[in-house]
Design a protein that fits this description.
This protein is about 35% helix and about 10% strand. It has about 950 residues and is an alpha/beta fold. Among the domains are: about 180 residues, Aspartate Aminotransferase, domain 2; about 170 residues, Aspartate Aminotransferase, domain 1, CATH 3.90.1150. The model has no long low-confidence stretch (mean pLDDT about 95). Bound molecules: pyridoxal-5'-phosphate. Its cofactor is pyridoxal 5'-phosphate.
């Protein structure tokens, strides 16, 4: 059987039955009717023909073999680490964790929410600050978000942000990228050499510095506060098990990465960044925040705090665009802390510090000078004129060091460093070995951390295994059933696609390893970028952005840089339709643009007359239009080609948000939209794609993602990878470690399989729309009444007539064994269903029948009154087995509604969660032990 037939759920016979229901003779006929001819691509995809799973793995093995796994002592925020095998197999390689969705439906997400609460507790304890969020994309972007947080919170009117010259170079670059469009001036200052500038709103310190130096920052923090500035400390969490934490010297914010807590380097990512703030700033924190609340019985329950969706993405008033984060990796890092506990982490850190001290002792004894006396894991050796020679000699011994300059070499120890590695380094420097010495770190930490029992209960492998299983069992992921989330494309994440991710040749490479050691990655990335360019009709692609939101920012920055490069300095307006995803407007704001909203017409399409008016109004200020295609309403709009032409005629650029590419692959190319039409209308100029939607990277419970940016030739010089406006992610290839997943998907599907997947995705959405239309109005449709790859069910008339809300339906679906569709996006009071091509007909029918049965329950609400199975959903096992049952409907209706297999019943661990209670009583770390009494 071909891989495509494994990936695509419905068999040929099932597809025929679905086509019959929708009223088309073939997939081709359906797609001919659905997709406007003006954008239709008829020439196929120029991609290699499908490989079998075995062939693809063999090719990946050959690519992996072209990478060299050396001993990495480069440091700079990326360190060797031992991923505990129990965590690797039971989290990173376990679909119960990696196929879960973002925990917007908290009742079915208690396991990952608990793990994320552990993560937040770990970060706040180690940094000595109060409130941590549930992960950032990487250290560089976390530091950039800290800068904008400082700008919002500071009382200083200065626009100057001061950055420690000993900060990580990639962090400085990401900060500069983010600062420039916002009018912030970044001043990189050698803080050893002189005082702070008088005027500043924020200060970024690195602790320990990139050089390894551990400095006492207390006086600088005081001076910055006196100037009205906020202080961010980018701190190494492992170092903080031994060193005085930033919270104890009054830092306002800490940012960094949790990579070395058991997450492989992966040639740069994915890893969980962190961001944590002192008391008083928690309501300004970007990203997702897990908090404690209570359910309908008053039991403790977790959910995302301060928001249903990201509260900082307030469209044109946005302060951040972060959406998809790094949940899977945050879970891994938190479990590393749970497994080792405070004493174990301290022991690991001490071993690392002892290695570094021993290394330094040997260098000193051999007459090599060191840049600093106080350090944790990293030393900078001073070898005037000899640095290249030393780095080369170490490489010849299988060890990568950091070339700081012609005169200095950086060497970082980590938990994988052995005495043999130290000997190789000494030998590269030409100094004799010395006996091990014990480290005495500067600024030793006196306070405790990780005192919550969860960090002291799961140290045996048996206990850890069971804890991971217990949490995973609380959650509903794709391994249990369909997750029909509109706009999120929760399709199969095939095991063959996942396997290479943990191969050492992909997992254990440092992002700044020498080019000769990463030939396999270089080839894989350039093939993947080429294939994505072919699929989208663009000329160049960069995989650096590590989420869709970051791809948006990169694309808009490219547009901005393009206009500026032509001396077109007044173009700063981005037109965005009212139906757009919140990240679009947020990214435009971050790219220094003003957002002007374009209306949608009654059919949900971009209102072209309103577009004309807006274009006329903004005149020469038009920078771009940003549209999603097919629209977030799930419709192939016929006006897209003329929309492109109107904006181009007015001097603007066209950004097509490619999150919905699952409805286009093989049938239309955004970069070529309308090109073939009479009159030669032009296509879009730039898109981002979401490899964690269309191209099978699993959602991970809310990340990782990859959001490549694809552009036409005129924008190519402005891509981040082309040295354009600067880095948008810390690592040159972003989350490179998961790129084998989309590579394998494309390689195994081939051009025909990919095109068929699109067709079946559209067929499945139309099948669901056809079956449900008589029960729930389908809000929008395009050509011939067809939807694209998703459909919006309009609950508003039902809510008006019966009081039953989208929330009630979503929670009742849990009792039926389903994850809810997307709620109230893009239209409040509706559900958006995206079945994808991977669900077979039986699962599609099970979903439709559940929705139909729920409609019948809604019709009976009148007879039950307020105490009905919808209002009380979801029902827990505890509730339905309670000795007393007072509800007017039977227990069997609560627990086993029609179609539920009693042997495969999913039981939610908590009843409906009261979000508002938790927001009023914000608790974002593990509650103290007495709270468990
Ligand atoms: C998912 C999505 C995004 C944002 O992508 P992230 O990876 O979550 O940042 C943007 N636009 C649309 C239409 C989306 O569906």
């Amino acid at each position: 059987m071909s891989f495509a037939a494994r990936h695509i759920g419905p068999s040929a016979a099932e597809q025929r039955r679905m086509l019959e229901a929708v009223g088309y003779a073939s997939l081709d006929a359906l797609m001919d009717a659905a997709i406007p001819e003006v954008i239709r691509w008829h020439d196929g995809l120029d991609l290699p023909p499908a490989a079998t799973e075995e062939e693809a793995l063999a090719e990946l093995r050959a690519l992996a073999a072209r990478n060299t796994v050396a001993v990495s002592m480069i440091g700079l925020g990326y360190h060797g680490t031992h991923t505990p095998a129990v965590i690797r197999r039971n989290v990173l390689e376990n679909p119960a964790w990696y196929t879960a969705y973002t925990p917007y439906q908290p009742e079915i997400s208690q396991g990952r929410l608990e793990a994320l609460l552990n993560f937040q507790t770990m970060v706040s304890d180690l940094t000595g600050l109060t409130t941590a969020n549930a992960s950032m994309l990487d250290e560089g972007t976390a530091a950039a978000e800290a800068m904008t947080l400082a700008r919002r919170a500071s009382r200083s009117r200065s626009q100057v942000y001061v950055v420690d010259a000993d900060a990580l170079p990639q962090t400085i670059s990401v900060i500069r990228t983010r600062a420039e469009p916002l009018g912030i001036t970044v001043r990189v200052v050698d803080l050893d050499a002189g005082p702070l500038p008088d005027e500043l709103f924020g200060l970024h310190l690195q602790y320990p510095g990139a050089s390894g130096a551990v400095r006492d920052h207390a006086a600088l923090v005081g001076a910055a506060h006196e100037a009205g500035a906020l202080v961010t400390v980018a701190a190494d969490l492992l170092a903080l098990t031994l060193l005085r934490p930033p919270g104890e010297i009054g830092a306002d914010i800490a940012a960094g990465t949790t990579q070395r807590f058991g997450v492989p380097m992966g040639f740069g990512g994915p890893h969980a960044g962190y961001l944590v703030v002192r008391a008083g700033l928690e309501r300004m924190l970007p990203g997702r925040l897990v908090g404690v609340s209570r359910d309908a019985d008053g039991a403790r329950a977790y959910r995302l705090a301060l928001q249903t969706r990201e509260q900082h993405i307030r469209r044109e008033k946005a302060t951040s665009n972060i959406c998809t984060a790094q949940v899977l990796l945050a879970v891994m890092a938190s479990m590393y802390a749970v497994y080792h506990g405070p004493a174990g982490l301290r022991a690991i850190a001490s071993r690392v510090a002892d290695r570094a001290a021993t290394l330094a002792a040997g260098l000193r004894a051999g007459g090599v000078g060191l840049a600093a006396d106080g350090f944790f894991d990293t030393v900078t050796a001073l070898v005037p004129g000899r640095a290249r020679e030393v780095v080369g000699a170490a490489a010849a011994r299988g060890v990568n060091l950091r070339l700081v300059s012609d005169d200095a070499v950086g060497i970082s120890c980590d938990e994988t460093t052995t005495p043999a590695h130290l000997e190789a380094v000494w030998s590269a420097f030409g100094v004799p070995p010395v006996d091990p010495v014990a480290a005495t770190v500067p600024l030793p930490r006196e306070s405790g951390y990780l005192t919550h029992p969860v960090f002291d209960s799961h140290h045996s492998e048996t206990a850890m295994l069971r804890y991971l299983r217990r949490l995973a069992d609380k959650d509903y992921a794709l391994d249990r059933g369909m997750i029909p989330l509109g706009s999120c494309t929760m399709k199969l994440n095939a095991t063959t696609e996942m396997e290479p991710v943990t191969w050492p040749e992909f997992a254990d490479l440092h992002p700044f390893a020498p080019a000769a050691q990463v030939a396999g990655y270089t080839a894989l990335i350039s093939q993947l970028e080429g294939w994505l360019a072919e699929i989208t009709g663009y000329d160049a692609v960069s995989v650096q952005p590590n989420a869709g939101s970051q791809g948006e920012l990169a694309g808009l920055l490219a547009i901005r840089a393009y206009h500026l490069s032509r001396g077109d300095t007044g173009r700063d307006v981005c037109l965005i339709p009212s139906s757009a995803h919140g990240t679009n407007a947020a990214s435009a704001v971050m790219a220094g643009m003003r957002v002007v909203v374009v209306a949608c017409d009654a059919d949900g399409n971009v209102d072209l007359a309103d577009l004309d008016r807006r274009i006329a109004d903004v005149g020469d200020a038009l920078a771009a239009v940003m549209v999603t295609y097919p629209s977030t309403h799930g419709v192939y709009e016929t006006g897209i080609a003329s929309l492109c032409a109107k904006v181009h005629d007015a001097g603007g650029q066209v950004y097509v948000d490619g999150a919905n590419l699952n409805a286009l692959v093989g049938y239309a190319k955004p970069g070529r939209f309308g090109e073939l039409a009479a009159g030669g209308l032009s296509g879009a100029d730039v898109s981002h794609l979401n490899l964690h939607k269309t191209f099978c990277i699993p959602h991970g419970g809310g990340g990782p993602g990859v959001g490549p940016v694809a552009v036409r030739a005129h924008l190519a010089p402005f891509l981040p990878s082309a040295g354009g406006p600067g880095l948008v992610s810390a690592a040159p290839h972003g989350s490179a470690g998961i790129l084998p997943i989309p590579w394998a998907y494309l390689r195994m599907m081939g051009p025909d399989g990919l095109t068929r997947a699109t067709g079946v995705a559209v067929l499945a959405a139309n099948y669901v729309a056809t079956r449900l239309r008589e029960h729930y109005p389908v809000l929008y449709a395009g050509n011939k009444g067809l939807v694209a790859h998703e459909c919006i069910l309009d609950l508003r008339p039902i809510t008006k007539a019966t009081g039953v809300t989208v929330d009630d339906v979503a929670k009742r679906l849990i009792d039926y064994g389903f994850h809810a569709p997307t709620m109230s996006f893009p239209v409040a009071g509706t559900l958006m269903v995206e079945p994808t091509e991977s669900e077979d007909l039986a699962e599609l029918d099970r979903f439709c029948e559940a929705m139909i049965a729920i409609r019948a329950e809604i019709a009976s609400v009148g007879s039950w009154g307020g105490d009905n199975p919808l209002a009380n959903a979801p029902h827990t096992a505890g509730m339905v087995t309670a000795d007393e049952w007072t509800h007017p409907y039977p227990r069997s209706v609560a627990a086993y509604p029609p179609g539920v297999d009693r042997e495969a019943k999913y039981w939610p661990p908590v009843r409906r969660i009261d979000g508002a209670f938790g927001d009023r009583n914000l608790v974002c770390a593990c509650p103290p032990v007495d709270a468990y009494a």
